[in-house]
Amino acid sequence: MAYLKPRSATLVVYVPGNYYRAVTVKTSRAAAERVLAFKVRRRWQVGRVEGVSVKVPFESVAPLLVGNRKLMPTGRVDALFKEAYRRSEEVQEILRRRALERMHGDEEAAEAYIKAWLKAENFTLPPDDPDAREASKANPTVVYGVGHQRYNVQVPPWA
Question: pLDDT tens digits for 131-153?
Fold first, then answer.
């Protein structure tokens, strides 16, 4: 759903796997209209605020949801972001930039972090994974080793 004002918009997104909690995003009207370019289910208007109900693919909303603290880091939400990363170049660019920030400007470590995140199943990697080892050396708060048993992706790039 979206509530469109003359210059701004509020998107209310229901993400599968987020425990049925709504995620709200404040954005510009132009950015909201790019997301709403799909088949509209219903429109209504109250005063100057226009309401729109629409079902959109996740990769069109994903760039607006990156970094939203209301998203729960569950396996289902993570899988949606991985699929959006594979399909959308805009999402790839945003997540690469966030990975570079998290790895303190080290491009090789940022690339290893992205690869490790894409390979991880339920945020867990095997102990012999070279990408997880390199990302863990650059920033152990993001990817950390649990003894010699496994690596965990503590903070995925989208969170």
Answer: 999 999 999 989 988 877 899 99
Kindly state the helix (H) or strand (E) to which residue 50 belongs, with its residue range.
Answer: strand 49-54
Residues 101 and 76 in one domain: yes
The verdict on 36 and 113 lying in the same domain is: no
Domain of 11 in residue numbering reads as 1-56
Residue 5 and residue 70 in one domain? no
Residue 23: C-alpha distances to residues 1, 11, 69, 75 (Å): 11, 8, 9, 17
Residues 101 and 85 in one domain: yes
Residues 15 and 29 in one domain: yes
Q: Is the pLDDT of residue 19 over 90?
A: no
Tokens of 42: 């219903």
The dihedral region occupied by 112, where left means phi > 0, alpha psi between -120 and 50, and beta the remainder, is alpha
Give the chain's domain count: 2
Could you report the per-residue pLDDT of 68-115, keeping only the tens digit for each?
988 888 889 999 999 999 999 999 999 999 999 999 999 999 999 999
pTM, entire model = 0.89
